[in-house]
Amino acid sequence: MSKNGQSTTLAETHSPDSKEVSTHKFLIHHKGDHVGVATSPIKEGEQVIGIYMDDNSEVNVKARGDIPLGHKISLVDLTSDQPVLKYGIQIGLTTAEWTVGDYVHTHNIKTARW
Q1: d(CA 14, CA 20)
Q2: Per-residue pLDDT tens for 30-76?
């Protein structure tokens, strides 16, 4: 665990030169973001590929729950009350512990504004 309480477990990343041919199911806006956004529905147990928009590298994640189109998937393990990054900035705080592949929505994230 890092000094800010964040776990160090991350989704597995692959370079853009990877030889595997597959379709991505989620996008990540910036390297270092904690979540990706589903570009099509993701089923629990499905092994899915995400693409980092800033360099086209890939990440491979096993979904731990159904994730609807437009909703978020966790790319890192986080403990409760930790900052959540998307677009390279903090978008909220966790309200529960997360594991890579978890469905991220109002049940486990809240705004950091109030």
Answers
A1: 10
A2: 999 999 999 999 999 999 999 999 999 999 999 999 999 999 999 99
Task: Name the residue among 32, 26, 86, 34 with its Cα closest to residue 60.
Answer: 26
Q: Could you tell me the maximum CA-CA distance found in the chain, to the nearest angstrom?
A: 46
Q: Which residues lie across from 51 on neighbouring strands?
A: 27, 58
* Number of CB atoms found within 10 A of residue 22's CB: 11
- The identity of residue 59, as a single letter, is V
Question: Which residues have C-beta within 8 Å of that of residue 39, sequence separation ≥ 6?
Answer: 24, 25, 26, 27, 69
Locate 21 and state its tokens.
């041919």
Residues 6+ apart with CB under 8 A from 41: 66, 67, 68, 69
Of 12-21, 79-88, 101-110, the least confident: 12-21
DSSP β-bridge partners for residue 52:
28
The single-letter code of the amino acid at 86 is K
Domain ranges of the chain: 12-110
- CATH fold of 12-110: 2.30.130
